[in-house]
Structures are given as C-alpha cells and as structure tokens.
Amino acid sequence: MITLIVRRVGELLLLLLGISFLVFGSMYIAPGDPASMIGGPTATEADLENIRENLGLNDPFLVQYGRYLGNAVQGDFGYSYQTKQSVADAIAVRFPNTLKLAIASMVVAVVIGLVAGLISALRHNSWLDFTSTTFALAGISIPNFWLGALLILVFAVNLQWLPVGGLSEPFYTAEGFKQLILPAITLGTGSAAMIARMTRSSMLEVVRADYVRTARAKGVKETKVIWVHTLKNAMIPVITVIGLNFGFLLGGTIITEKVFAINGVGRLMIDAIAMRDFPLVQGSVLLVATLFVVVNLIVDIVYTYVDPRIKYE
Amino acid sequence: ACGGESSSAPSQTNEGGTTEAGGGEIEEFVYASTSDVAGLSPILTNDSVSANVQEHVYETLFERDTDTGELIPSLAESYENPDELTWIFKIREDVVFHDGTPLNAESVKYTFDKLRDPATAAPRASLLEPVDEITVEDEFTVKITTKYPYGPFLASLAHSNAAIVSPTADQAQDLMSNPVGSGPFKFVSYTPGDQVVLEAFEDYRDGAPDIKKLVFKVVPEISTAISMLQTGEVDFIDNLPSEQIARIESIQNVDIEKKDGTSVFYLAFNQSRPENQDENFRKAVAAAVDRDAFVGKLNGLGLRSDSVLGPMVFGYNESKNAAGQAYDPELAKQLVEENGYGDRTISLLTANRDNFVLMAEIAQAQLTEAGFNVKIETMEWATFLDTARAGQFDITFLSWANLTQDGSEMFYPNLHTDNIGSSNRAQYSNAEFDELVDASRTSVDQEERLNYLDQANGLLLEQNDVVVMYHGVVTGAMNSEYTNLILEPNGKWTLKDVTRK
Amino acid sequence: MVLAQTTKEQQQEAKTPLLKLHNVKKYFPIKGGLLKRVQGHVKAVESVSFELMEGESLGVVGESGCGKSTLGRTILGLEEITDGQVYYRDQEIQNLKRHEKKKFVKEMQMIFQDPYASLNPRQRVGDALVEVFSMHTNLSAKEKRDAVVDLLKEVGLKEEHFDRYPHEFSGGQRQRIGIARAIALNPSFIICDEAVSALDVSVQAQVLKLLKTIQEKYNLSYLFISHDLGVVRYFCDRVLVMYLGNSVELAKVEELFETPLHPYTQALLSAIPRPSVHANVKRVRLQGDLPNPANPPSGCPFHTRCPIAQDVCVQSKPEWQEYQPEHFAACHFAGKSILEGADV
Amino acid sequence: MSTTFSVETPQVRTKKKDRFVVSTMKRLLKNKLAVVGLIIIAIQVIMALTAPWITSYDPATQQLTKSELPVMSEGHILGTDNYGRDVWTRIVYGAQISLVVAITAVTLGLLGGVVLGMLAGYYKKWDAVIMRFVDLLFAFPGILLAMLIIAILGTSLINVAIAISIWSIPTCARIVRGSVLSIKEKEYIMAMKSMGASDLRIMVKHILPNALAPIIVFATMRMATAILSTAALSYLGLGAQPPTPEWGAMIAQGQDYMWTSPHLTVIPGIAIMLTVFAFNVVGDGLRDALDPNMDLN
Amino acid sequence: MKETLLEVNNLVTEFRTKEGPVQAVRDVTFSVRKGETLCIVGESGCGKSITSLSVIGLLPENGRIANGEVRYKGEAIHNLSAEKKRLMRGSEISMIFQEPMTALNPVLTVGYQLREPLMIHHGMSKQQATTRGIELLNQVGIPYPEKRMNQYPHELSGGMRQRVMIAIALAGDPGLLIADEPTTALDVTIQAQILDLINELKDRLDMGVMFITHDMGVVAEVADRVMVMYAGQKIEEGPVEEIFDRPKHPYTRGLLGSVPNVDDPTFELHPIPGTLPSLTEQIQGCRFHPRCLFAMDRCRQQVPPEDDLGNGHYVSCWLTREEAVSDGVGTNDEGTATRSEDAPLKVAQR
Ligand SMILES: Nc1ncnc2c1ncn2[C@@H]1O[C@H](COP(=O)(O)OP(=O)(O)OP(=O)(O)O)[C@@H](O)[C@H]1O
Ligand SMILES: Nc1ncnc2c1ncn2[C@@H]1O[C@H](COP(=O)(O)OP(=O)(O)OP(=O)(O)O)[C@@H](O)[C@H]1O
Ligand SMILES: [Mg+2]
Ligand SMILES: [Mg+2]
After folding, report:
1. What is the mean pLDDT of chain A?
2. Is the pLDDT of residue B18 over 70?
3. Set of chain A residues whose Cβ sits within 8 Å of the Cβ of E117
4. Residue E89 and residue E86: Cα distance in Å, rounded?
5. Which atom in ligand 1 lies closest to the alpha carbon of residue C45?
6. Do B244 and D256 touch (CB under 8 A)?
7. Separation of B198 CA from ligand 2 center, angstroms?
8. What is the mean pLDDT of residues D6-25?
9. Does the CB of E293 have a partner CB in chain D at under 8 Å?
C-alpha cells in the first residue's frame, strides 16, 4: 500500500511536470498577449511594453518556464497577472466551492445511479428496467448548460423554490443546502446515468457468475444472494466509474459554475484562459490534475478493501 | 432589507427583516456584474468592472456633471491654468481617507507619481503621459506642468483611474485587495471571483449614504443575474442586454433606467490593406449596411447617428448625424458589381462578446445581400485584441466607451497614426486627420477644440472610414423599492444617493 | 492410397537428430517494487536437454504449469531463450536474424490446444490458410486457393468449408484446420501443444488418428505436449517427463510405462484413472500441490511431495543421467519404487 | 473402399456476406431502444443530406422584420430566431454540422487512439511511455484541453473537431490497449507468430479486426459525446462561427430570449438531446449485440 | 439393497431460445440409492449438467422442467415452492461444480462461505459455525484449517479450492451430492486426491452421489452405476462392470474405444465419427444413427425403446434386438468394440 502511494506520488509529479509544460507551452504559443489584457483597449504600445517587461514576458520560453518550475518547486505558484493576487490564494478562495459542488453532484450521481442501476438489473427486462435505462440514457444526452438553464427557469424563477445561483452559504444551513440542489443536479445527471449503466451491466454479469449459483446451491436466501454474494462483486467496476466521474466532475464544473454563478475553480480557469492569465491557468490545471490522480489513487485503495484479489506491493 | 412591506423576494439575505421607520436605511444592496473586478487599486487596473467599485471607494479631482456632462470639480476645489503648460489645483480641505489620513496635495502628487512611474507598470499610465512634473505648492495646492499643451487634461483627471489613493494605505497594504480611498463607501471585504463588500463611510463629507452595506456580486450569466433580480437576490444590474430588455420590462418589481451614452460601436476597415483603401469599396460597404434596421433590433438600447462622436461626447455636432453614406442597397449592389468586390473573400473579424456578434451577423447578412463575400471570424477577446492590433482582418467591429466623454479621447487612441500597432486597430493613417486631432488635444480653448473635433469627425464620415452602427444607451435595472440611481452617459453609475422610495 | 512411407527403423538408423536441445532454460522475470525492477524469476524451464529424431514423436508430460508450453515456444523462438542451445539439423537457431529465421519457420510448426482460440474468429478459414502461403510463397491467387483446397481435403474437410468462419465449425473440425495450417508449408517438425486436450474423447480419437496418418505420410517429427498419459502412450515413441521446469525422466514409451525410474513418473502413472474396472494398479497418492515455480524448493524440486525423499534430496539437486540405454532420469534414488516409502 | 468420415457441419451454409455484420445487426434490431436510436440517426442523416430540398430558406438569410416568430407561424413551422432566420432550416443545416464535426472528431480521435493503444498494448517496452502520455491527456480536464487547443488554433469548427478528437484519444487508447493485451495472448496470435508473420501484419490483420467491437461501440458513444462537446464549446463561444447554424451556438444565442421566445433554446436543445440520445442507445445496443460482457471503462 | 434417494422419471428439460423451445434433456429416467455413486457420462453438450441442475432446481432463467418428475426420498421436489426448494438445497441435495476458480466468491472469505450453509441449515451461531467449519475443512483434508477460514479463495490452489467446495457442499449434511465434473480442471495427481476424497466421504457419510464426467477413467474409478447420455437422452445404464465389460450401445462402445489405454501398448483407437448434433437438429429415429457405424434402416425411422437386459442393465438400441450384432462386430476381452475393418480417415493425395 505504501509502495503504491509512493509510486503514485512519483508518477503524479512526473505527470504534473508534463502537464505544466503542456499548459505553459500552449499558453505561450496561443495568440493573445497577457499585457494587452491587463492594459485594456486603451493601452499604448509603451504601456504594454512596460507591462510585459514587468511580468517577464519578454524572456525566452525556457527561461520563463524554468523560472516557473523553480518557484513552483518551492511552493510558489506565482501571482495572477490580472489581480496580482497569489495563485494559491486565488485558488484557495474558490476551491471549496468547486469541491462542494463536485461532492454534492457526486452524491446525487451515486445515489440516483446506484438505485436506478440496481432496479434495472434486478428487474431485468421489465418496464422498470426499460424506463430507468431510457432515463439513464436521456441523462447522458442532455447538454448540461441547457439543463441548468431549464432548471433555473422552472424551479428558481417560476416556482421560486430554490435560489437562482450562488454558493456562498455554508452547505449545512438550509439556505446553503438549497443553493446546492440545482447545480448538483445539473452537474450530477450525466454521471448518475453512467453509474446507473455500469451498475446495471455489472450486476447482470455478476448475477450469472458461477459463485452466485454456488450460493444458491447452498440454499442462501435470494435477498442475501443479491446483497452479499452479488453486490460487492458488482461494485468493483462501478467504483472505477465513480472515481473517474468524480475526477471528471472536478474538472467539468466550468459550465455549471458559469450558469449558476458559482465562484469556483472551473470559472477561474476559463476566465484565466480568456484573460491569458498564465499563472492562474497553470495553478488551476495542476490542481485539477492532482485531484484527478488523487481520486483515482483513492479508488485503487478502496479496491483493495472491496476486492481481496488486488494486492499492490 | 425588505422593509415592512410585502416583498416578492424570497429572503435573499439572512439579516433581512430588520427595519426602521423614516427615510429608511438600506441594510444591504446587491449589484451583480458578469465579471469579477481585476482589482481594487485604480492605479493597477483598467477595466470598467473594477472602475464601478472604485468609483464608490475613491474620488477623483474632477467629475462630470451627470446631466450636462460638464466637468466640475470634485476633490479639487478650483483650478487655474496660468499658461498652456501649467495647471494649479486647489484641493478641498475637508476630506479624509477611510483610514483617517487627511487628503491633501501630497496625496495627489503621490498618487499621480505612482501612476506615472514605469516601475508600477500601470495600465493607464498614458492618462498622465503629457505630465512633466508635479509639485506640491502648499498643503492643499498642487502644481502640474505638462510637456505640451494638453486640452483634455481635466477630462483625464476625471477618469476613475486617476482617483486619489491614500498614500499611507498604499505603503502599508495592497490596495488591489484592500483599497482605501475617500469615497462614500468604505471597503469591507473582497472574495475574488465572488463579491466585494463595501459599507457606508460614516464620515463622508456629504453625509453617509443610505445604503449601509453595498455588495458587488459576480454573476457571470446575465440571464442568471436577471433571474436573481426577479427573485430579489440582486437589487441592481447594469448594461442590460438588448435581447433581454423585453423580459426585464415584464418583471414587476424592477425599474429600468435609460440614458443616452457616450459609447460608440462602429465598423472599421483595415486601412493597411490596399483593397480597403479603395474609397468606393468603403462606400459600398456603408451603403450595404442598414444601420436603421440594426438599431431597431436593439429594442431602444441604441442611438442611431452617423456621427462618430455621439451626442453625449464633447465634439459632437448635430450636422453630422447623417453625414455618412446612407443605406442604399441598390448603390451597394451596383458598386459591388462594377468593381467586382464580390470576388474576394472579406474577413469580418469580431470578438465573441457583447453586441459584436449581433453586429457581425447582421452586417454579414446584409453585405452578402449586396453581393460581397464575407466570412465571419469570431475570436475570444484576447485573441481578438492581438489580431486586430496586428491588422489581420478586412473589416471589424470596434467600440469605444469613452469614459472621459471627450472626442479627442476617442480619436487619438483609435484613429491617430501614433497608435497604429496598438490601439489604432483600424490602422488608419491620415495626416490631415492627425493634425486636427493633435490640435484638439493641445488646445486648451474648448470652443476651438470643438471645432477641430467636428472637422475630424466630418473627415472620417466623408470617406466612410468609419461606419457607425450605433451609440450606446446606458441602462440599469433596479429593484423598484429604491430610487435615486445616478447613471452617467459614460456608463458609470453611483449608488451613493440611492434611497428607499 | 499410396503413402510415402519410411519405416521408423530406417529413420532411427540415420541417427541425425532433427532437433537437439542442450540445457535450455527459460526464466520469466518477476517485476515488482517501487520502480518495477526485476525481483526474481519464474523458472518456467530449467535446463532441458534432449534429441528428437526424424519421424519420431516425443511426448512431453507433466502437471499444469511445469513448463511444457514454455518449452515448446522457446524451441520455436516465440520466447527468447534464457540460456542453452537449440539446434535444428545441427544448426543453432536461437538468436537468428529475421530473414534467416524464415527458413526455419517453414520447417517448424505448431498446433495449439484451444480449438476455439487458435483461429482468428474474424477470418475465413480459407483466407487464414491462404495467408500462410502469401507469407512464404509467391504463388498466384489461384494456385494458393488450389493448395488450400488440397489441404482442406487432406485433413478431412471439404472445399465448401473454404469460405466459412471458425465459429461455424465444431472443435474437432477447427483442430483439423489448425493441423492444415501447420502442414501447409511442408514442415518436418510440429509441436503439438495439448493439441487434443480440449476435445471430447470421440473427437480426440479422430484427431489423433489424423495426426498419425499425416506423420506417416510426411515423415514428420512431433513434440507432443500433453498431460494425458494414455494419449502419450498411444501416440509417442519416447516421453519426457517434466516437473517444475525440470526434466525428470526421458525414455522410450514402453520402458517408461513399464519401469519408470523417477518417483514422480511413478506417482503420475499411478494417479491416472484407468478406463477399466479390471485394472488393479497399486495407488500412491501424492500429497500437496505443485510448488510455486517462482520459488522452487532447494535440492530436488520434487522432494516436497516425494514419498521416498531423504535428506540428500533436500540438499542437492540430482543429476540428469542415463540410467539405462536411452533412459534418462534425474533422481538420487532412481529406480526405487515409491510403494516402499508410501503409506498407500 | 474405406468408409469416409462425415465431416458435415450442422450449421447453415454461409452466404458470401459477412456473417458477423449481419448477425450483429440482427441482434441490434431486437433492441427496441436501439431501433429508436437508429431511426433518429437515419432521420438526421437524411435531413443532413437533403437539407437544401427539405427547406426553401437559407440558414443565414435574415429577415429582420420577421424576427422571433413563434412556432407554427406561417411559413416558419418552427418559428424564426432573433434575426428572422427560419429555425427549422437552421436545425436541418445544423444536423449537417453536428454530424460532420462529430464524425471528423471521432475519426481523428480513433486514429490516434487506435495507433497509440495498439503500440502500447503490443510492445511492452513502449507501453509505459505511451500510457503515461495518455494519462497526462486523461488527467487534463476535458473542456480545458479543448479551450487551450482552441486558444492556440483559433475559434472554428475544425479546431473544435481537433480538440474533441484529442480529447477522445486517451479513452480510445485505453480501450484498444486493453483489447490488444488480451487478444495478444490468444493462441491464434501465437499461431501467426509461429508462422513468421510480421508484427505489422499481426496488428493490422489479426488484432485490429478482433479489437473492433469495443472500438465500434466506443466510436458510437463518442459520436454522442462529440456532439455534446461541440455544442458546449459553441455555447461557450468557442466553436461555430456565426452565422453557422450550430445547435449549441443556437442555444447560446437563444438563451437571451429564453423568456420571450423559449423555442429558440428548446428546439435546438431537443435536437441535441435526441441526437445524442440516439447515438447513446445505438452504442449501448451495439455493445450488447457485439458482446454483452464488454466493459468500456 | 439400500433405500432409493433420488428418482428421476421421464425428465424433459426445455429452454426458451430465439429459435423456439429446445429440449436439452429428453425423457430421462434414473435413480440414485444411498451410498451409491451414479456416474453420468457423455460428450460435451449432451445434457449432463442440465440434468443435474434440473434435479437441484437451479436451471438457468430460460430453462424449465417441461415434463417428468424428480423425487427425493419419495417426495416430489420438482414442483416445490421456491422457498422450500431453497431449504432443500444444501441440506438434502448439495452440488459441487467444475471450476473451483469461479465457483467460490472471490470477495468473501472461505470461512464466510463455509459458515453460511451451517447457519442456514443448522441454525448455528457464528461461533459454532466456525468450529464446525474447521472440522469440515479437516475432514476434506485441508491443512491448517483455522488459517484457511480467514483466507480468500484466490489464496488457495485449485485442489484446495475444490476441497473447500466439497466442505461447503457437505456442510448441510446432504443425502445426495451432485458433483459436476469436479476434477476436470485439475491435474491428474490432484484429481486422484479429490476422487479418493469423494469416494471416502461417500462411504463414510453414506451419501448418494451423482457424479458427472466425460472421462471414462474417472467413471471406472468412482462409479457404482453408470448412465450414458447422448444428445439429451439416456442411451444406456447399468452397473459399472456391465458397462465396461459388456457395453451394448455402439455409442458406449465408441466412447470406450476412443480412450487410449495406458496399460495396453497395443491399443488401437476406434473413434466415433462425426460430432454431437445440435439441440435444434431434427433427427428421425435414433438420435445416434447419423454417427453409428451399424445404423440400419429401422434406426433411421424409429426411436429405439429401452430394453432391460437384466442385472440393472438397460439400453436403448435396435441392435440389441437384432441377433446378428456380431456380424462384423466383436467384443474383445476388454469389452471395447472393434471392427474387422478399420475406419481410417480418408486422406487425399497431395
Ligand atoms: N509470459 C509469462 N510471464 C511470466 N510467467 C510465465 C509466462 N508464461 C508462463 N509463465 C509461467 O511459467 C510456468 C510454466 O508455464 P507453462 O505455460 O509453460 O506451463 P504448462 O506446463 O504449459 O502448463 P499447462 O499444462 O497449464 O498448459 C508457469 O508457472 C507460468 O505461470
Ligand atoms: N441457458 C441455456 N439456454 C439454451 N440452451 C442451453 C442453456 N444451457 C445449456 N444449454 C444447452 O443445453 C445442452 C446441454 O448442456 P449441458 O450443460 O447439460 O451439457 P453437458 O453435458 O454438461 O456438457 P459439458 O460436458 O460441456 O459440461 C447444450 O447443448 C447447451 O448448449
Ligand atoms: Mg500449456
Ligand atoms: Mg456440464
């Protein structure tokens, strides 16, 4: 286990190095000058030159990248070009919101996904299965920017049951909880559908396994056959899907954050890209990638508990 | 916030409900903007969102009269102009910064020097580019000399980026996240990406505003913001999109304020390309684009005039309202036919924000109608700025908010030869025009300036160098519980006088 | 039917070994740890030597995992040899260049165990056979097709089977196709890796007969890998018994079955269920399982399960010796009956 | 003479047609949802191909005086948008765009993914390097990757297709690698090696066709994702150039009129949803038809 | 003679398939007595497993007993309620399967899986079940049973797993044990161990055993009586000595003639030509006739009835009614069928 973690951390560092290079490189070759984004349309060439010099943008690529890496190694991820705020601070303010949103969406996704998937599998080929399969597929098919707008229209504006946007209140207050509902549904629907699908097919497969027949041959009750002899085995691939989806959710909050006026990392990222705020882009991409890897590491560790066959030396 | 009367707003604030009799303090007032402030220091920022907040925290030496547009003293009490190059300002003596520091001549010098210092890399350093030297004459008198006579100098000083900051605060802390000014509101907190919170400055020289807590909230989707306005989560939004005006009008608890503005949206040609230097070509384009129809699409949020300098801008002359090539599809078709303009593909560059796409789509359709072969290229803002600056387009749409409301401030950056390669994205170069603009900038005689500007304006229209699509209308929509919003033609607004109805 | 036959005696006299293995070893590295470094080896084949004559069938028997398949693959060069030499007609053939290898590819072929996995399910069987000719000959399309049809007939299939997919055949028929593919290029040597194990007895018998017929016709040599001693006895001339990667005994088939020298061979023979109610073989049951080939026991690899093991077996590895003429074994107590040491 | 062995196969005689395709299709057609999906896709393809004939309008022609007409207006069955363009026409032409972009994206992505996955699965020594690179793409937030690519290449549908294709590579590579790893161990591959077949021949002729099933399913599902992503990027203003009638862009544009002319968002929204749904159900059906036990993740 | 445990009469098991209903077991009748091992042999796909699954009531979803009855200790069990069937499974009739790798749940400990039947059928507490479980593991010859209780299946070797399976099957003290090819996946030396174990347990516990295999060697080793199946039908049944020494059905002879004899160097193979027909195939008359070297016209038209040859030996073949069987066919000492003329492959000239 320790070896696994150590190795993954090692791989993560390599990965981050790769990603940072990729991001840095792509921002470098992307058209659009950070200086003119700071200077605005009125800035004169002299203003811009001044800003560029100030930000070190006139140095050669490798010098800039080297400087970035050097600082990053020391835990300094630079300062936003726009706000001059430290990248760490800028992210620290937004990350809790993104995390909150991602976790809430995941809860929605897992609860709906598992329930729908199990119902489908256990009532295989019934109308319940058909309905839930159809809904699952529809869930994956809805563009979430559209879903979000529709939800706002119905539940916030017309019915006024839930607030339109924001995520400022703590989640344990009634207000904060209400704020989470619509965005969590918007973001979680796709994942719910994927989890439902995976649960269904995995259950269907496991139900046919020899050891389930063994359990029946022993005279085990049908309910126990399902909950003890099937579910845990069926969950193994589902856990992968959950892990991957959680990773994707963390990086996929962009549109939801935009629609629901949530101050999160996703929005920070697109704004930063639009403003050519390199340090912010770097910082947030690295964060999301790290989280992705960490989540998958956790999934791998969870595996060892669910599936005793898996051993990492 | 919701007073005693019933409100349709589902409790947007948890402290809502506490009220007191009388004129009514406003416990919390929320404004929503679609993007976050870049920062809270006037010296280091140059964007309208930041300016909105800064306007409430800081003050400038001069300001514009909201109705007449005239420059009137604000922090300055009076000024003298002993010669063309010298400006002597008398500063009000009763002003203190929020941190208790008195505002005096030293503060002004400090602020301006900092703004000018190349090491600061201030984005708007060019505001004070003509300044040669700043000297403190006495506690409340400051003398500024310019390198050359500079006509729009006072307008520059009214610019929100020329607001006076507290030198003690600037040395002690980062004004970007922790601003200290002398305005009606005092900084409380800033959550990047989310909101800036201000509170009433009790020691404000004109008396503390009614709004006790003022929140600038970021709501990136304007539709969401409107929904929030509808549900009462937000009290005020500005820059209403023309597409949604009908919807906002239909909302019961919201009042819309409109005012003619200084901004101008226009079609520009890339004049560095010989094809575009063809006068007939520009004429054909101008004749093909039906600006009236377009302005009709704006649902009253646009002002139709050919004049490059709009009615609210210094330098405007009514006679230029129809001085450009009028819409004449037949003429356009004829010109296209005669000159074979349809043979080349014209790239229509546009940024993918605001009304630019709308203009581009309509213009493209109309130009196509006239026989041109136009391809729209939309770009995100950053790329657009670079691409336009480098002159990689045939036609584009540009806009100018003109915060200073001065014609020179429109012509010089946008169309003067000096600024090709930077803000002169049309790559326009015309010696005669340059001369007129220079004259308007260096003269301090306002009558004379008016004349120069009008001539320059005429020059542009005559040759269809600029095809004005519309002049902006400043808008705001506020919860109808409140009143006394001050909207300025340049898009700025002030909430310090807002009261409960 | 005129078959091109040479008698076995004639071949034996020629005394040119077709294939010769000398101390062939094949280890698979086990990777692990933080940097996935090699931490040990699975000693799949640990020093195997033998000679195979032309027209001869050599059986290789042993329990699952003892390295039979690996041995076969190593001979064909499908696995890189770890140590030792393989000679084919006196030429060393491991480490040959690609183009040099081509010659031997035609000479040496393989028939696989799983009739369901040994044919590409997305390829018509005819095309699969044509492909063999495409790779190694310059025949025209027509010639290739004719050759394939001949082949199909040769193994008891029909021309109409040319355009069918493998899933349309029964296990036995697929195995025939596998055989057709193996003999397409006129090889002299074929490795049959459990070629009949997966088949039903009735079909197994059909295929065994076919293999014999072909052998006689083309004077083929077989390396016949199997765990079914009955089949080996029926089919092979000599037998090599393997245990945990080691060769433990090699002898003519009758001799091995009549007087097995190695206790493992004895145990193996006594464990076979006889399809007869009259067989009265004294049973000795081996205790325990095959040890892990990654961590083989010291000394004689069989000592952990050997009923007659002594201290010496734990300490030193017995040598591979010729105890009788052409009868090799590796045991400190070769020839001793396990019945003596076992509690039957 | 001696008795001949009967080696008659009980199975039906084979037609020259590829039985694999036929039988898969048969099984697919048993799946009701998949049939619905196929019909939707067929309609879309027909719409895309016959666009100029099934509508008399041009998708870009504006009639400013007839803007925002509601559904079922005279001459405009689905109404008009804010520029007075016929919504039905734009939906029809939008089908073209969605399909072309998605097909391009998926094809490019498959190409990259199959090559990488094949090499990684087949050659042990390349595996680590390729898979690390794939991990890198994988850990990169999808939309962000697309945004960066578009920031570099510029806003256009082609670049959207490229961005989405790059985004498809890691998943595809993993799927292919997984199949290759298992197929590689099959005896028929061993058989080809023992016949002296070259690596290229083995990969292309023997591994690829057998790894095809999951690839086909992936491609179908990816079509769905690609359509959604194209729409999402257009929604963010990074995709289609106006006046291209891309569905996502139509939603984005229509959203401003959501309260006054909801059909401007609802119609393209439904169009996207139906199409994506169709590809998803067909993909799902294909998976079941090809191999019920296949695991796409 | 011991009491009859299991009686299966005219069992027909049907599957719903896309091609319509197919019969996998066609009118099969047999019985198993206490302390007796009945071996069912036949080629792959002939319906051995389905017969046994019909008995224990674990048919796949699309399968059903279409006709006939299954009686256990005189009581009909094929039409019991699902709940009654469940309680019967494991306590009256137990089953072990071919693949010890997949028949045990990989995510549950050996202990859990072993305790389960004990707790279900004997109402034991977990504690008691653990103690009894260890005893059972001991009984099936597993070393260190305490340790094994906490291990997972993948930590055991194939042979050990099969022993665990047997222990689980024995846990409910069943009267009848069904073993479906329990040694096919094992090596000969391990197979021998398991066969010994089953034999020993059968004697000790006085169980009836239904042993399914296709290996004639295994049959000879464990069987008391043998039932030979072909294409869903029973074609011959009798005591093991009868079947090996006096096989009557050409198919049985063919089976015996297909297995090389280890002890006989001169043995010649006599394969049965052709392959098993598919379930859907319509065959008139005797289902074996297309592969039968002695098929007569009658065989092609009429289904042969079952003949009682005495001694508990039954066969369904027209040949037994013909006196002239010996024409061209003899029986050697071993009882394997031989033919005067071999049936070699037709090998074309290349
Ligand atoms: N590619 C490989 N990597 C690592 N170990 C391997 C590899 N191939 C085989 N082995 C190991 O080598 C040993 C011998 O395997 P091999 O397949 O040769 O046995 P076998 O005698 O053919 O067994 P079986 O009768 O089951 O086919 C086994 O322990 C196996 O796990
Ligand atoms: N669920 C099912 N649906 C349809 N047909 C089935 C089903 N299960 C089994 N069969 C068919 O029933 C027949 C008998 O199968 P069974 O498993 O009893 O064979 P078997 O004699 O046990 O063979 P093996 O030796 O391979 O285990 C086979 O032809 C098989 O294809
Ligand atoms: Mg093997
Ligand atoms: Mg079976």
Report:
1. 85
2. no
3. 218-220
4. 5
5. 14
6. yes
7. 79
8. 52
9. yes
Strands B71-73 vs C37-53: parallel, antiparallel or unpaired:
unpaired
Of C210, C273, C287, the CB nearest to E345: C210
Question: For chain D, where are the alpha helices, taking DSSP H only?
Answer: 19-29, 32-54, 87-122, 124-139, 142-153, 157-184, 187-194, 199-201, 208-235, 247-255, 263-290
Of the candidates C105, C168, C181, the beta carbon closest to that of D9 is on C168
Encode pLDDT of A240-272 as tens digits.
Answer: 888 888 888 887 788 888 888 888 888 888 888
- Cβ neighbours of residue D87 closer than 8 Å, sequence gap 6 or more: D71, D76, D78, D79, D80, D81, D263, D264, D267
**B and C interact (at least 3 Cβ pairs within 8 A):** no
Q: What is the pLDDT of residue A264?
A: 86
- Minimal CA–CA distance to B242: which of B486, B54, B473, B420? B473
Out of E99, E154, E168, the one facing A218 most closely (by C-beta) is E168
**Region B156-185 average pLDDT:** 90
pLDDT band at D247 (very low <50, low <70, confident <90, very high): confident
User: CA B49 to CA E184: how far, in whole Å?
Assistant: 78
What is the assigned CATH class of domain E1-92+175-285? Answer: alpha beta
Q: What is the pLDDT of residue C190?
A: 94
Chain E residues inside the 8 Å CB shell of D7: 274
pLDDT at D17 over 60: no
- Contacting A residues, span 183-242, partner chain B, CB-CB under 8 Å: none
What pTM was computed for the model? 0.81
Chain C CB contacts of A3 under 8 Å are: 33-34
Distance CA B336, CA B368 (A): 11
Distance CA A56, CA A63 (A): 9
Atom 11, ligand 1: residue with shortest CA distance: C44
High-pLDDT (> 70) share of chain B, %:
95
* Per-residue confidence band for E189, with pLDDT thresholds at 50, 70 and 90: confident
> What is the end-to-end Cα distance of chain B in Å, rounded?
13
C1 and chain E in contact, CB less than 8 A:
yes
User: How far apart are the CA of A232 and the centre of ligand 4, in A?
Assistant: 27
Q: For position C240, what pLDDT does the model report?
A: 95
**pLDDT band at residue E315 under the 50/70/90 scheme:** very high
Domain architecture of chain A: domains with CATH = 2-80 (no CATH), 104-276 (1.10.3720.10)
Q: What is the dihedral of CA B95, B97, B102, B108, to 10 degrees?
A: -90
The sign one gets for the Cα dihedral E137, E141, E145, E148 is negative
CB contact under 8 A, C117 and D187: yes
For ligand 1, atom 26: residue with the closest CA? C64
Contact B456, B409 (CB under 8 A): no
- The torsion angle over the Cα atoms of residues A236, A241, A246 and A252, rounded to 10 degrees, is 180
Spatial distance between the Cα atoms of C1 and E347, rounded to a whole number of angstroms = 8
> For B350-407, what is the HEC assignment?
EECCCCHHHHHHHHHHHHHHHCCEEEEEEECHHHHHHHHHCCCCCEEEEEECCCCCEC
Q: How far apart are CA C58 and CA C69, in angstroms?
A: 14
pLDDT at E237 over 90: yes
Q: Do D277 and A198 touch (CB under 8 A)?
A: no
State the distance from the centre of ligand 3 to the C-alpha of C27, rounded, in angstroms: 15
pLDDT of residue C15: 64
Q: Residue A118 corresponds to which tokens in the numbers above?
A: 């199990």
Compare all CA atoms of chain C with the CA of D209 and give the residue at the minimum distance: C122
Give the per-residue pLDDT at E323: 47
Taken in order of first residue, the domains within chain D and their CATH numbers are 31-52+75-181+212-290 (1.10.3720.10)
User: Which residues of chain E make contact with A222, given a CB cutoff of 8 A?
Assistant: 82, 86
Assign residue E339 a region (left: φ > 0; alpha: ψ between -120 and 50; beta: otherwise).
beta
Q: Where are the domains of chain E?
A: 1-92+175-285, 102-173
At E337, the amino acid letter reads A
